[in-house]
Specification:
By secondary structure, this protein is of the alpha+beta class. It has 2 domains: 1-69 and 317-348, Orthogonal Bundle (Hypothetical Oxidoreductase Yiak, Chain: A, domain 1), CATH 1.10.1530; 77-190 and 232-314, Malate/L-lactate/L-sulpholactate dehydrogenase, NADPH binding domain (Ribosomal Protein S8, Chain: A, domain 1). It contains 11 helices and 13 strands. The strands form 3 sheets. The chain has a 7-stranded mixed sheet with strand order 3-4-5-12-6-7-8, with helices on both faces. A hairpin with a 2-residue loop joins strand 7 and strand 8. Helix 1 (16-29) crosses helix 2 (34-49) and helix 1 crosses helix 11 (336-346). The longest helix has 19 residues, at 97-115. The chain is globular and about 55 Å long. The termini are close together. It binds NADPH dihydro-nicotinamide-adenine-dinucleotide phosphate and pyrrole-2-carboxylate. Residues 52, 54-55, 127-132, 149, 151, 167, 169, 171, 184-187, 191-192, 194-195, 277, 314, 316-320 line the site of NADPH dihydro-nicotinamide-adenine-dinucleotide phosphate (NDP).
C-alpha cells in the first residue's frame, strides 16, 4: 500500500484504486461476499471521489455496524425474475440493492433496447448510498434513466406532525452530445439525513427549515433533529407540499410497486447498530433513439446551452465531475483520522 500524500490540511490524498481496495477488504472482513464487497466499494469510493460526502467514507462505520447487527445479509444472492417484456424484478433477499441491480443490469439494458423502455423493480433490499451511480452508467450507454429509493421514516409529511416518509431520493441521468451525462440526484427532504449527521458531528448548526425537534418546533440544532425530531420535506415554508408529494410518489414507486417495505414499515429495533433502510428501489430506463426521431443527446445539449444563456452556468452534476477530475489527478481527499480508522477496520 502506498504512503498517503499529505493534503492541504488534515487530509490525505488516496489513490482511487487503493481506496476502493481498502473498502473491499473492510466489507469482506465484516461479512460480505466478494461480489457484494465489490458493488458496495465501487459505489462508496465513487461518492468520496466525487465529493458526495454524505454517502462517501463517512458511511463505512454504518455499513460495518449494520453487518454486525445481523440486520442485512452481506452474502445474499439476488434472484432476478423476468416478469414481462419490459419488466424485470429482483428479490434482493435481504441483501444490498447494488449487487441486486448489478445481477440484473445486462438483462435490463437488453430489455430497454428491445422495447424502448423497461422497468427494474428491486425489493427486499438495503440502499445506504448515493443514487447517481445507479443511473450515470445508463446515460453513458445513451439511455435516459430515472431511479428512486425510499429509506427510513424520518421526514414529516407536509402539514403533518410525525415522521412518516424516508428522505426518498430521486436521480435522473440523460446523455449529452458534448459532455458528461446530465445527472441530478436529490433527496426529497430538505437535505439528506447523512448531512444532518455530518453537521451534528462537526458541531455545526443547519438552516431553519431543515427539521423540527421532538416537540415539532423548528430547530437549527442537528442533534435535536436526529434525537426524537425529524426532517422536513424540501420546498421550504411555502413549497413543502411539493417535496412531500414527491416523497409520497417515491414510497409508491420504490416500495408499493416493487414489493418492498414503506419507510415506516420495517422494524430494526431488535438489531442495535442497524442503519440501512430495508425497502425497495425502482429504475426506469428509456432508449431515446426509439422515441422522437431527433438526436436526444443533441437536444439535451441545446437545452444545457439555453440554460447557460439564461444565466445558469452550473448544471447539476458539474461539481461532482470537477471533483472527480481533481481526485483522479491528485488522489481522493480523505480526512486523515478517518483514513486511519478505515485502515484499522480493514485489518492486516
Ligand atoms: P444536494 O442538495 O447536495 O444536491 C442535489 C442535486 O442538486 C445534485 O444533483 C447537485 O449536483 C445539484 N445541485 C446542487 N447545487 C446546485 C446548484 N447551485 N446548481 C445546480 N445544481 C445544483 O443533494 P441531497 O442532499 O438532496 O442528496 C445527497 C445525496 O444523498 C444524494 O446522492 C442522494 O442519492 C443521497 N441519499 C440517499 C438516500 C438513500 O436512501 N440511499 C436517502 C437520501 C439521500 P452536484 O452533484 O453536482 O452537486
Ligand atoms: O442520507 O438520508 C440519507 C440516507 C438514508 C439512507 C441512506 N442515506
Amino acid at each position: 500500500m502506498t504512503t498517503p500524500t499529505l493534503g492541504p490540511t488534515d487530509q490525505v490524498l488516496i489513490p482511487f484504486d487503493e481506496m476502493r481496495a481498502v473498502l473491499c477488504q473492510i466489507f469482506e472482513r465484516h461479512g460480505t461476499s466478494a461480489e457484494v464487497a465489490a458493488a458496495l466499494a465501487d459505489n462508496c469510493a465513487a461518492a468520496q471521489r466525487d465529493g458526495a460526502m454524505s454517502h462517501g467514507l463517512f458511511r463505512i462505520p454504518g455499513y460495518v455496524s449494520t453487518l454486525k447487527s445481523g440486520w442485512v445479509d452481506g452474502k445474499a444472492v439476488p434472484v432476478v425474475e423476468d416478469k414481462a417484456p419490459g419488466f424485470l424484478s429482483v428479490d434482493a433477499a435481504n441483501g444490498y440493492a447494488q449487487p441486486a441491480y448489478r445481477a440484473a443490469y445486462e438483462a435490463f439494458v437488453r430489455k430497454v433496447r428491445a422495447n424502448g423502455i423497461a422497468l427494474l423493480a428491486i425489493r427486499r433490499s438495503h440502499h445506504f448510498a448515493a443514487l447517481w451511480p445507479d443511473v450515470e452508467p445508463l446515460a453513458r450507454e445513451g439511455l435516459v434513466a430515472l431511479t428512486m429509493v425510499n429509506s427510513m421514516a424520518c421526514v414529516v409529511p407536509s402539514g403533518g406532525n410525525k415522521a412518516l416518509f424516508g428522505t426518498n431520493p430521486i436521480a435522473f441521468a440523460a446523455p449529452r452530445e458534448n459532455g458528461d451525462p446530465l445527472v441530478f440526484d436529490l433527496a426529497t427532504s430538505a437535505t439528506a439525513h447523512g448531512d444532518i449527521q455530518i453537521a451534528a458531528r462537526a458541531g455545526h448548526e443547519v438552516p431553519i427549515g431543515y427539521g423540527v425537534d421532538r416537540h415539532g418546533e423548528p430547530t437549527t440544532k442537528p442533534k435535536e433533529i436526529l434525537e426524537g425530531g425529524a426532517l422536513l420535506p424540501f420546498g421550504g415554508e411555502h413549497g413543502a407540499h411539493k417535496g412531500s408529494a414527491l416523497a409520497m410518489m417515491v414510497e409508491l414507486l420504490a416500495a408499493a410497486l416493487t414489493g418492498g417495505n414503506f419507510s415506516f414499515e420495517f422494524d430494526w429495533s431488535q438489531h442495535p447498530g442497524a442503519q440501512s433502510p430495508y425497502t425497495g428501489q425502482l429504475i426506469i430506463a428509456i432508449d431515446p433513439s426509439l422515441t422522437s426521431g431527433q438526436n436526444f443527446a443533441q437536444r439535451c445539449e441545446t437545452l444545457v446551452q439555453a440554460m447557460a444563456d439564461a444565466g445558469q452556468q452550473r448544471q447539476p452534476g458539474d461539481r461532482r465531475y470537477e471533483q472527480r477530475a481533481r481526485s483522479m489527478a491528485h488522489g481522493v481527499p480523505v480526512d486523515a483520522a478517518q483514513w486511519q480508522q478505515l485502515l484499522e477496520l480493514a485489518g492486516p
